Amino acid sequence: MSTAEIKNKERAIDELVLVLRKIFGEPEICAAALEIARKHINEEHANVKIADELSSLTSIKIPIEHSEADTLFLEMLKDLVRDEQALY
Prior knowledge:
By secondary structure, the protein is mostly helical. 76% of the residues lie in helices and 0% in strands.
């Protein structure tokens, strides 16, 4: 792995940690994020729809061009919803 790739991975991790800190600081974001993910999980372009609604309703702002950290966060949300649905 090149130095640039390592730096990009470090940046993505740092960005994801910042988002998680914001969520832990504002617990209502977690509930809203999961509700939004539940609503859009099976739709075409789910990541875009989840990101747009999350950005408009919370202090989490995900740009149109998703970074690696944005994509990781959105995939994590969808995984949490899938796990939740598998229990029922």
